Amino acid sequence: MTAVYISDSETKTGVTADQKAWAVAATVCDPEIPVLTIEDLGILRAVRLFDDGGTVPAVQVTITPTYSGCPAMDAIRDDLKAAFHKEDYPSVHVELVLAPAWTTDWMTESGKAKLQEYGIAPPSGRAAAGGHSGPIRLSLAVKCPQCSSLNTKELTRFGSTSCKALYVCQDCKEPFDYFKVL
User: Fold this and answer.
1) Distance from CA of residue 54 to its chain's centroid?
2) Fold of 2-96
3) Crossing angle for the helix pair 73-86 and 17-25, nearest 10 degrees?
4) Model pLDDT for residues 50-95, shown as the tens digit of each residue
5) Is the CB of residue 165 less than 8 Å from the CB of residue 177?
6) For residues 139 and 119, what is the distance between their CA atoms, to the nearest angstrom?
7) pTM for this prediction
8) How far apart are CA 121 and CA 111, in angstroms?
9) Which bin fits 4, alpha (ψ -120 to 50), beta or left (φ > 0)?
10) Sign (positive/negative) of CA torsion 69, 75, 80, 84?
11) Domain range list for the chain
């Protein structure tokens, strides 16, 4: 693979072809939570262009699943290819990487706010990257995304997807998903 060089138009605008390609990939939404983009989730890791001998540069996109068995990865791969084909990039390669493992720490603050507005409690706290050495982690109350009450209860550790837990608010009585800290 040969690198793609910056054109005169890129020099004038200050926006590189790689940045434009990132912007295309960043429009792809998570199929399980359609208000979040893969950039919001932090699973979009890298986008780069390279010369594969065609008239248009090829695209290499690197994504990391929220967990190794995430069923959304095939749909995300297809959506990435469709988004780039729509922008006239005929050659798109999507690489799935498992290391380093995804963590909710990679989610954007904007993504967490979108979760809240959608009715899913965003992850609270930071992940214990590197193991559980040191202080014992305590479970804190999860705020209801409907009424903001902290009087909530976990119903089941696994909700509509493996990365979410199912809670119920004891005040407004509404059930809701909580995006677990991973």
Assistant:
1) 30
2) GMP Synthetase; Chain A, domain 3 (3.30.300)
3) 130
4) 888 878 889 999 999 998 888 899 999 999 999 999 999 999 999 9
5) yes
6) 21
7) 0.76
8) 11
9) beta
10) positive
11) 2-96, 107-179
